[in-house]
Design goal:
Membrane topology: Multi-pass membrane protein
Structural class: mainly alpha
Main location: membrane
Protein name: Carbohydrate ABC transporter permease
Number of domains: 2
Helix content: 55-70%
Distance between the termini: 40 Å
Shape: globular
Number of strands: 2
Largest sheet: 2 strands, antiparallel
Number of helices: 13
Family: Belongs to the binding-protein-dependent transport system permease family.
Strand order of the largest sheet: 1-2
Pfam family, one: BPD_transp_1
Strand content: under 5%
CATH topology of the largest domain: MetI-like fold
Length: about 290
């Protein structure tokens, strides 16, 4: 049976829309990458930048020579790697008991946790809590307050609920306890959803900067995104007040673009590795409530 005209038209329109969305998504990155590889004069040119007319690594040399950029990079890597690992462990320890029907008052505990998705204490109470916990100016302030993301934990809980209970029962007959069952059976079967949640957590940690502004005053503990924000704002101030140099570091369009690309590269490298798990893990973890 040949496709009807309406089906052809729908597919054509759909392809055009998806193509436009792809172009609108990819072009800004191409533009910034082109500006970062252009000379300072070419980078300041108004208009589209699809490719650098003459490749100039001035901006990259300036960015990579800055000590604070590498300090921020190291802190961001620490935050992302350690934070993601501890988040997966904490979520698993929370989601596993909530997924077991024999846990007393399971629905009550789930509702309390779900409540935190919609209502929070606000910035000032959170700041006071962080201060009382002695987390100010500590790298652990990046990890501890958001250790168990509610939505991700519920996705993991739903995935655990979909695993056949017979596996757990047979393991208990063989003498395994709950910890052994979780780390020996449940988590190895949960690799797709764990990879997905790891990607969510890693992207969230890598892109975060607001907590660094609120809770960190020591420059040696700042993350890369904080310095990226500083460069963008300093560049704006320079244009406003005529100050084009801060210290010995010129904040021009090419340097700002190079910093943006430098900050985005790690996630762009990691994402394709975990992409094959992304759709599968999200769908399976959302099926059962």
């Amino acid at each position: 049976m040949k496709p009807k005209f309406g089906e052809h038209l729908f597919q054509t329109v759909l392809i055009i829309i998806i193509s436009l969305l792809c172009i609108s998504t990819i072009y800004p990155f191409i533009h910034v990458a082109s500006v970062s590889l252009s000379s300072p004069s070419e980078a300041g040119r108004f208009g589209f930048h699809l490719y650098p007319k003459e490749i100039d690594f001035f901006a990259w040399k300036q960015v990579l020579s800055q000590t604070k950029i590498w300090i921020g990079f190291g802190n961001s890597v620490f935050r992302t790697v350690v934070g993601t690992f501890l988040t997966l462990i904490a979520m698993s320890l929370c989601a596993y008991p909530l997924s077991r029907k024999y846990l007393p008052h399971r629905s009550f505990y789930t509702m309390i946790i779900l409540f935190t998705m919609f209502f929070g204490g606000g910035t000032i109470p959170t700041f006071l809590l962080i201060k009382e916990l002695n987390l100010m100016d500590s790298v652990w302030v990046y990890i501890v307050p958001g250790l168990v993301p509610t939505f991700s934990m519920l996705v993991l809980r739903n995935f655990f609920m979909a695993i056949p209970a017979e596996l757990e029962e047979s393991a208990k007959i063989d003498g395994a306890n709950d910890i052994r069952i979780l780390f020996g059976i449940i988590l190895p079967l949960s690799k797709p959803v764990l990879a997905t949640l790891a990607l969510w957590s890693a992207v969230g940690h890598w892109n975060s900067w607001f907590d660094a502004v609120l809770y960190i005053t020591d420059a040696d503990k700042q993350v890369l995104q904080f310095f990226l924000r500083e460069i963008v704002i300093t560049n704006t101030d320079a244009e406003t007040f005529g100050r084009t140099v801060v210290g010995n570091f010129k904040y021009g369009p090419s340097i700002k673009a190079a910093t943006i690309i430098f900050a985005a590269l790690p996630i762009l490298i990691v994402y394709p590795i975990l992409q094959k798990y992304f759709v599968k893990g999200t769908m399976i973890g959302s099926l059962k409530g």
